## 1
Amino acid sequence: MHQNLNASLHGIRGSFLDFIADPFYQVEQDCVRYLPDGLLILEDGYIKALGAYQELAAQYDKIPITAYPNRLILPGFVDTHIHYPQTEMIAAYGEQLLEWLNQYTFPTEAKFKDPSYARRIADCFLDELLKNGTTTALVFAAVFPESVDAFFEAADRRNLRMIAGKVMMDRNAPDYITDTAESSYEETKELIRKWHHKGRLLYAVTPRFAITSTEKQLKLAGQLLQEFPDVYLHTHLSENTKEVAFVAELFPQNQGYLDVYDQAGLVGERSVFAHGVQLTDAEFRRLSEAKAAIACCPTSNLFLGSGLFKFHQAKSPEHPVKVGLGTDIGAGTSFSLLQTANEAYKVAQLQGQSLSAFKSLYLATLGGAEALCLEDKIGNFEVGKEADLIVLDLQATPLMQLRNPHLPAQSLGQLAEAAFALTMMGDDRAIQATYIMGRLAYDRDGHRPV
Ligand code: GUN
Ligand code: ZN
C-alpha cells in the first residue's frame, strides 16, 4: 500500500513562478510567488506540494524527480477565446471583420461538416496549443455538431481541460453554414448531455454574435443556460465599429450591443465575451456587475484593424471586469500567449499605459482561469489543483540568450526584467515542455528530459 502510494508521486525541480492574487489590484510583489530553486510534487495528476528544493527534498528523497535547470516553470497558459476551425485560415489578407467573415471564414468553416476533416484539424489544433504552452482554451467549433464531436473526442483523448461549443447562427450568413433557432437549440442540448463534464471537458453555449442570430435563437440560447446552469456562454461582443452599427440596425429596440445579449438572459458569471473593443462605459459597468468576463484578443484586434482594448477601463478598481487573453485564431496571428502578451503591451502603450510582464503572465494563467471560473482547478500551483504546467526556456534563441544571460533570476526585480523580455521575444520556441495532469504531453526537443 505504502509502495503504491509512493509510486504515484513524482517531482519536478526548477524555478517556479505563479500568481496568488490579481496584480492589477494589489502590489505586484504580493501577487507573485517565485521560487528560484523549487520542487513541485505531483500525485496522480494533482499538485501535492510546492516549496524550496532545500526544504522539500529530504521529505521526498525516494521519488523520481525531473530536473529543469535554468528553466522557468509556470502553470499552463489559458486561451480564453479561439476558433479551432479557423486554424488553416490564419493570416488571410486584406479585410476587416464583416468582409473577412464572408470572404474567408464562412467558406472555411463549411468544411467542418465532414467529420474526418474536422478530426484532422482538431488534432493539428491541439498539437499547436500544446506546443505553445496552452493547456486550457475556450473554443468555438463550427455550426455542425460533428465539428464539436471531433474536437471533444480529440481533447478527451489527451485528457485536456477544454471548453467548447457548437456555433449557433441562423441568419446573415450563407445557407450552407446556418442552422435554425430550433435545430440549434436541440443540437446544443444533445451536445451538452453528451460532453459537459465528460472527463475534463465542459460545454459553452456559443451563438456566434448578435448579427448572425435572430432574437428567437438568442432567447433559446438563454433558455439552455437556464436548463443547464453550469454551462458557459461564449460569444463575440463589440469588436468592430461597423459590426456595432449593424447590431443597432438589427435590434433597434435594444439599449446597445450588450443589451441584446442581456435581454436574452446571456449575461452572467459564466459568460465570456470576446473583444469588447468598442464597449461603452455603461457596458463595462454592466459586465462588472454581472461578473462576466472579456477575452481580450490583441493580435486579432490589430490584424483586423478593430481597435485598442481599454485595459485600464476593464481593470478599473471601481468597476472591475474579469479579463483573460485570447489568441482568436484565425483572426489572431499567433497561437502563442507570449506573442499575445507582446501585442497587449503595445496596445496599452498606444493608450499611455504600460502592462508589466507580471500582469500579462497573470492574465495568461490565473486571470484566464478566473475568467473561465476555473480558478479552483487550474491557473496556479495551489495544492490540490490539476497539474497542467509548462517549462519555459528564457534563452530559446541566441538573441534571447544575449538578452537574458543570467538565470535563474535571483530577485523579483531580475525576474520582472527576464519575464518581460520573454513576453516580448518568446513564442513556441520558448516552450520546452508541456505537462497535462502531471504527464509530459509535449517536449520541444522530442525526448523525455532527464
Ligand atoms: N465575430 C463573429 N464571428 C467572428 C469570428 O469568427 N472571428 C472574429 N474575430 N470575430 C467574429
Ligand atoms: Zn473570435
## 2
Amino acid sequence: MRVVMKFGGSSLATADLIKHCATLVKQHTDRNEVVVVCSASGDTTDDLLQLVETARRGRSEEVEHRLSAIEEHHLGLLDAVADERVREETAETLKQWLRELRRAVLGILYLREATPRSTDYVLSFGEKFSTLVMAGALNSLGVKAQYLDGGEAGIVTDSNFGEAAPLIEVTRLNIRRRIGRMLDEGITPVVTGFIATNEEGVITTLGRGGSDYTATILASSLPADEVWLWSDVDGLMTANPKLIPNAVVIKKISYNEAIEMALFGAKGLHPRALEPVMAAQIPVRIKNTFNPSAEGTLICDTSEKTASPVKAVLLVNDTAMLTVKGPSMVGEPGTAAKILETLYHAGINVMMISQSISESSISLIIKRRHLDKAVTAIEKSLLGTRIVASVEPEEDVVVVAVVGEGMKGTPGVASKVFGAVASCGINIRMIAQGSSELNISFVVKENDGPEAVKAIHDEYKLGKPSA
Ligand code: ASP
Ligand code: MG
C-alpha cells in the first residue's frame, strides 16, 4: 500500500513527540510506501507571524528575543532526535536556514514593512525546520528518508501569497516524476506541508492549516491508496465533546459531510484539503498520534445509509447577525446584491443568508469581530437610500449546524430538529438549508447554543448511550 502520512503541529511539538511520530512511520515503511508531510512544530507558525509583526513595528529587542527562542527550540529538537552521524550531516543545514530566517526578519525590521510575499517566506521556515528534524529522526531510526520542500516535491502555485492555489496539472506531473521516482528507489520522501513555490520559484503558502492540503495534493497526484492525517484528536466527532460529554468519534463519513464539517470549523481539517482526494476517490483517515491504536475517522465515498440521517451537530461561535430591513426591498431586484457587494468591499465574508418570501428583510450571519465594520459599511453606503430603512445588529448569537448526507430526501428531519429545540423552549432566530440538503443551519441566542446542540444530539441518539 502507498500512504501519505501528515503530522500536525501538536504531534511535532517536542523532541519526544517527533521521535514517537518517526516510530509510527517506521512501523509502516517495511511493508508500505510512505510519503511523510510535516506541519511546523507546535505553534511555530503563530510564533513566526508574531515575529513578523514585531519586526514590522520596529521592536528590535523583542525581535531578538523571539528569534532566539525559535533558534533554540529547533536546534534543541535536532539535537535530541538525531544520532551523531545525522546530526553532523544536518546541523549545518539547519544553522544555515536559521541564518536565512534571521536575515529576512532583519530586513523587515529595517524597512518596517512586511508584504504577503515576505511573510510567506518567513512562515516557510516553520515547516522547513520541523521537516528537516523529522527526516533526521527517521534517518536515525534507519529509515532511508529524504527531505524535500513543497516546491522541490513539485507543488507549483499561483502568486496569491498567503493563500496560494496549486496549478494542478503541472503539479501532478512534477510530483509523479519526482516523488514517484524516490518511492521506486525505496526512499521515504519527507515533505514540508503548507509551503510551495510559484512559477518563478518564489516561496508561497497554501493558507493556514495547509499541510493537510499538501498531503492530499501529493496523494491525488501519485496516486496513493490512502491519506492519514495524524493529529491530536481521535477523529471527527458527533459534537464538540467539551459541550456534549457523550459525543463519539464518527467511524465513517462521506467527503461531502467532512467538507461541510471542515467549513464549520470542526477541528483537524483544511476546508479545501478534501477536493483533490474526493475527485481521485482516495480515502482519508484521521488518526490520533497520542492514541495510535484507535481506528479514527475514515473519510471516503460512502453512500451507505446509517441509522441516523444526521451525522454531527456543530456549534459555530463568534458569529453575529445583521438584519437589513426596508419596505422598498420588496420586489426590487438587486437588493441582496447591493448589500452583499457593500460587505464584500468592506472585506467581510457572509457566512449565512436568509430572506423570507415577503422580501421585506434579509438576515445575514458574519464573524462577530466584523460586526461594527459591517454596520458602518451598510450605514454609509445604503442607509437612507430608497431601499434600506434600517440595519439591526445582534451580537450574541451562534449558529447550530446539523450535518448529514442522509437528510437528503428524508422527510421530517427539519420537524424533528426544530421540534427537539422547541421542546427546550429555545427560540430560533433564523434558518437556512441549502438545496444540497447536506446541512440545516439555524441561529439561536448564544446562551441557548449548547442546549440546542444537546437536544438534537439526544434526539438522534448520536452519543454514547448512558450506562
Ligand atoms: N503550520 C501551518 C499552520 O499552522 C500549516 C499547518 O499546520 O497545516 O497553519
Ligand atoms: Mg500548525
